[in-house]
Amino acid sequence: MAAGPYNYSYIFKYIIIGDMGVGKSCLLHQFTEKKFMADCPHTIGVEFGTRIIEVSGQKIKLQIWDTAGQERFRAVTRSYYRGAAGALMVYDITRRSTYNHLSSWLTDARNLTNPNTVIFLIGNKSDLEAQRDVTYEEAKQFADENGLMFLECSAKTGDNVEDAFLDTAKKIYQNIQDGSLDLNAAESGVQHKPATPRNAINNDQAPNKEGCAC
Amino acid sequence: MADKESSDTSFSSSQASNPLSRKLNKILETRLDNDKEMLEALKALSVFFSENSLRTRRNLRSDIERRSLVINEDFLQVFQSVKEQLDSVYNDVKSMNECCQDMTSRLKAAKEQTHDLINQTTKLQSESQTLQVKAQVADAFLEKFQLKPEEATALRGSRDGTLHMDFFRALGKAKEIHKHCKILLRTNQQTAGLEIMETMALHQESAYERLYRWAQNECRMLTGDSPDVSSMLCQAMEALEDRPVLFRYTLDEFGTARRTAVVRGLIDALTRGGPGGTPRPIELHSHDPTRYVGDMLAWLHQAAASEKEQLQSLLKKCRSNGEQIQDILGHITEGVCRPFKVRVEQVLVSEQDAVTLYKLHNLLKFYHNTICQIICKDAALLNTVAEIQDLSHRMFFNSLNCNANKLLDKVELPPSDLGPTNSLNQTLQLLKDVLACHDASVVAIDDKKQDYKQILSCVIDPLVQMCSVSASRLNSTDMAAYMANCIYLMQTTLAMYEFTDTRLEMLQAQVDAQIDTLVSEQASFVLNKVGLAFVYGTVQQHQPKQGPLSALPDMGGPVLKSAMSKFDSYMASPDSLVLPQSRLLLSGRVRETVKKNSADLICSAYKQIYDTICDPANEYKESPSIVPRTPDQVVRLLS
Questions:
Q1: What is the value of pTM for the model shown?
Q2: Does A44 sit within 8 Å of B442, measured CB to CB?
């Protein structure tokens, strides 16, 4: 209760990348505010948002860095890959060019993040079925070939948006459980907070904490 | 029996008048069937009058009387017992009455005796009630104005310094009691109020002291990458907010712990990188200044954002204002200033290339703006960024000035085609590069304008100067063409960028001056070639008082005629007499302007000559044959 939204055990750092105008900021806004932002201005450099989610009963805080898609910011945004546990790579299903650029984004993501970073491919604007320029199958194949997770979403209707962020978190969490992600290493993009505060409560009282947290 | 007697009597009385008849009548009138009394009497008579004889008739009366006597005696006897019983009842009632009276009197006495007692009891009862109410009030008072023993214990806490949630409840209560005491003080209970207040203040003081020690300890341990801000600590901060000094000290402790963590984080990112070296440590890119500095700045930006969030989560229950958060945030981010500054300064000082310096400058400016959205302007980190930005600004202009000085130190001679020198081309390329990277940056328009102005004056002014110096040994026509070419190149370079209008205007003015020179050179060249220069000069200087022009030497008809025929052949092919320098002009527009303006000049000269020759006062014979073409024709031919 009083411990409120801050009572989380992990912080996962995400980065959202992709061409200009594919709807990166709208995805973030849809995820954090559950609203569609109709007239989204161009992102300048980077912006960030947070939300707390729950995976396997663990509260996880997502710290999501939304980068500018414009080419002139490329140098700036590259510096933000460092230490991301999850990278959401976004293209616009109605513009093939944004899909064609994925390999360059993927190269950046692979080079600039750590090997355990979960890369999630998102085909945005799935609500514009009539204007579709990239088929689901084609993108799915691309994702499979490169070992990426994949979903088509719509930041406008909110369709699948939640899943994309949550599935990424689940995958990261699974990596932690497997031991393939080393929490102690710097810049793993994950920060762990022990659930019970040190030195604050005697062991026998620890279980009560959730109940009585006033 | 009585009836019988009365009927006997009436019988006898009727006999008296007519005794018998009357008696008879009477008997006859008698309705024995209906006279129950008579029937009863006769029935009773029949019981004992069994023998109707004289004697019995004579004795009847006495018999009846005797029987009556017996009956009365029986009657008397029966009533005697009734009376006796009644008497005994009477006696009983009487004794009862006496008893009751006795009781009444005794009761009365008793009542008189117990009256006091009852009074006393009532008094005591009411007293007891009052006392009970008082006890309740006292209980309520204690409940409200005293800590329960367990609460006091919770406040004193355990020996190992740990805290429980009870502590906060008890502390809250102590605080409330303290507050309520103020109400007490307003009533008559001032002594109690003061005493309780004092006790509570003592309780609170020791509790706050303990809380402070605890919170300080907790904060001191928050040095991880992502500190664990427990809900207990948040609560502690909320409670400590009532003691600004302790609150401040605790926050300072938090700030110091975080500050250490951030410094360590930066150093780790710089030197260790991610797990297994991916992402690679930032310092591995120190050979690439923009990436190196950009990575550091991005790291700082992210760290500042995370720290702010952590701070906000620590103070989420406090009324604490943003100012305090900013203050602590400033403190937290202060630690990284030095390691960051040292590295960037090193990069800046060793960098020669103006373009790179300018990129760095723009990068710093961009991050100054970006980080500004997270921490306030007067934080040490932003000051550092601003300082470095200032340094980068100076270094950039140093580099530009250095370049300019080099240009002026070693001026190249103009090439024979009067085109741009190498150094001019190189410098213009540098300018293009610089302005291009400005385009790629995100800086406020005002800044951009200001920057452009400064950059242009740093580059263009020395360039123009260099060109003038380099042109100084040329003749005026060459100089004009060369300068026009150089400035034209500068113009075409600048025209692609914003905020260059004023500069372009200034350059245009210089070009115009060069064009004027070229125009007059071209015109006089043509006039010289066709031999009209002297004629034109004479025509211009001629005064009517000097007499007719034809009389002057070398101004005779034949001389003019031959000059005019040469002019005619020039008009047939005007391009034959174009200055070689005009051909070398790079700008088509300038070339055209020179051609057109020089033609205009020649036309006006021709018109003047024509008018003078046709003037009768100048006494030319056959003037139409000397100047066969009208000025209008000449204009048409030359344009």
A1: 0.73
A2: yes
